[in-house]
Design goal:
single chain; 260 residues; alpha/beta; eight-stranded mixed β-sheet; four-stranded antiparallel β-sheet; 9 helices; 12 strands; 22% strand; globular
Length: 260
């Protein structure tokens, strides 16, 4: 998997030749460095300025696709008029349109109850944060000592099984986070395809992402004959066509796109 900046002359020709660009990115670990707590993952000002500038171009539709709750994502990015997809695309909005996945919305009360259970069952573990996000919830354990993690996972599994997650909820793991989502046929890839359907015909899709949930986004971009970029170290298993090292290099790529 080549480093995007090493093959930029070839990739830039494809981007420059596109009639329109659909430029989408994950947030945590992609646009913004991962932080110890979600509220501390601030968008670097350079990236905000670049996104704002790109969004102002008639040739570009820009947006952010994240596991964060939609309202939280909009507050963290704070660029009016972007396409925002929160909760892995189960709630989205763009200029003149809004979307909430109907099945996921029906399961929101169940997730709220589960959040209360997990806060009670996991409250004694150092560094654990249970984050309710309306349509999904996350259990962060980045600050939990390694010596407690085996016990933490046992307690988490017991709490989930005791709650009887059954056929309604899906549990996945990311970068020091456990995600609980409605078990519906929806993911970041489906969200990207829905956004692409409202973009100008022939748009070139570009997607940056760093985590397991972004793999669905990469697959969707490939369906669109677009460009997928994994953010992270070399030799990681991913569907992406290219990679960059970290959010700073994502900003560099955005700057190169802006120059085109």
């Amino acid at each position: 998997m080549p480093h995007l900046l090493n093959v930029w002359p070839r990739v830039s020709q494809l981007i420059a030749g596109a009639s329109h660009i659909l430029l989408l990115s994950d947030y945590d670990g992609t646009l913004a460095p991962i932080a110890e707590r979600p509220e501390l993952a601030a968008l670097p000002e350079r990236s905000r300025q670049l996104l704002s500038s790109l969004h102002g171009s008639d040739k570009i539709t820009a947006g952010v696709v994240s596991g964060r709750e939609l309202a939280d994502l909009k507050e963290m990015v704070a660029i009016p008029g972007l396409v925002y997809a929160g909760n892995h695309g189960m709630e989205m909005e763009g200029p003149g349109w809004q979307f909430v996945h109907s099945q996921a919305g029906k399961l929101a009360p169940l997730l709220a109850k589960l959040g209360d259970v997990l806060k009670e069952e996991l409250g004694n573990f150092e560094g654990v944060l249970v984050e309710g996000k309306g349509l999904t919830l996350s259990v962060h354990y980045r600050l939990t000592p390694q010596s407690l993690r085996e016990e933490f996972f046992r307690s988490l599994d017991c709490a989930l099984e005791g709650f009887g997650r059954g056929d309604d909820l899906r549990v996945t793991r990311g970068k020091e986070v456990v995600e609980v989502r409605p078990k519906v046929d929806w993911n970041k890839g489906k969200a990207i395809l829905r956004v692409a359907a409202s973009a100008p015909p022939g748009s070139l899709a570009i997607y940056f992402g760093d985590d397991l949930t972004d793999e669905d986004g990469f697959a969707a971009v490939h369906e669109l004959n677009g460009i997928s970029v994994f953010v992270g170290p070399a030799r990681q298993p991913t569907r992406a066509l290219y990679r960059v090292d970290d959010p700073r290099e994502v900003a560099t790529a955005l700057e190169l796109i802006a120059r085109l």
